Amino acid sequence: MTTEQLHALFGDSFLGPGQINKMLEQMGLDPVCEADVPPVGYSDQTLRENASTHLLVLGYGGKEGTPLDILRFRDHFGTDPDKSEPCFYNQDWYLKEDFILKTLEPRWYLIRKEVIEESRAQQPDALLKADIVFPSAILCVYTFFAYYFASGRFLWYHDFVWCSDLDHNSDRIYVGKYNDVDGVNKNGFSIHRHLALRPCYGSITAI
Fold first, then answer.
1. Which of 45, 58, 67, 162 has the most CB atoms less than 10 A away?
2. How far apart are CA 60 and CA 66, in angstroms?
3. Which residues 6+ apart lie within 8 Å of 43 measured at CB?
4. Cβ neighbours of residue 143 under 8 Å, at least 6 residues apart?
5. Which of 5-14, 136-145, 160-169, 193-202 has the lowest mean pLDDT?
6. pLDDT tens digits for 76-117?
7. Rounded to whole angstroms, how far apart are CA atoms 7 and 13?
8. Which of 165, 163, 188, 166 lies closest to 178 in space, CA to CA?
9. Under 8 Å between Cβ of 154 and 86
């Protein structure tokens, strides 16, 4: 399919070079050139089957010296919604983790727009055994901001989504939930880790 045909098929769920460049412009980065756009690595059947549930996203990892990683997104968009939005939720535990320095391969991605209802409140290991493929944290961050600047709408506004990344303790990363429905926490794209039980967790008593 041509870029025009893909855009027609996916509608506002298409994040091609034009849409990605809106985000890059916001970040003061050079645009993606049409000549550098790789072919779509999905069959026409796969694209049609997923057009109503997924976003088709052109992945871009930045240029030499300006990698488009989570750290760059965080440094640019900040952590204070009182200054500007969209932004990140104000936390810093992950700043020394390796996954925030990963970039996307220059290819197309299909990533689901909404949480699978049957996956709610399920342990990530059980979902992996059910052959669900988790996206990387950088793909979620990249898609979240690209979609916002292309459409003016937020992805995963009240939901967290599991990621393929692990921290240095092998705890699973999950991201999203831009808005706290209870109004306790400030707005911001969240990055958390699911703490696994280890011997250092135990109980004491109080009398």
1. 58
2. 12
3. none
4. 15, 55, 57, 109, 111, 135, 155
5. 193-202
6. 999 999 999 999 999 999 999 999 999 999 999 999 999 999
7. 8
8. 188
9. yes
